[in-house]
User: Fold YvrJ family protein from Solibacillus silvestris.
Amino acid sequence: MIEGQLFQILGNFGFPITIAIYLLMRFEGKIDSLRNSIDLLSNDLTKSTHDRSKK
Assistant:
């Protein structure tokens, strides 16, 4: 009886948890890519404003 309840709990919560973990792992790569792009843009902007101030 306890095993049946355990399987029911896993069935009810296991699928959403699995989907959430999958989506978090997938979005993590995209967030890292966006962070790198923002860092590059920030560096370019800093360099550009620094170069303009020298003129």
User: Anything to note?
Assistant: The radius of gyration is 24 Å. Residues 2-54 form the longest helix (53 residues). Residues 27 and 35 are 12 Å apart (CA to CA).
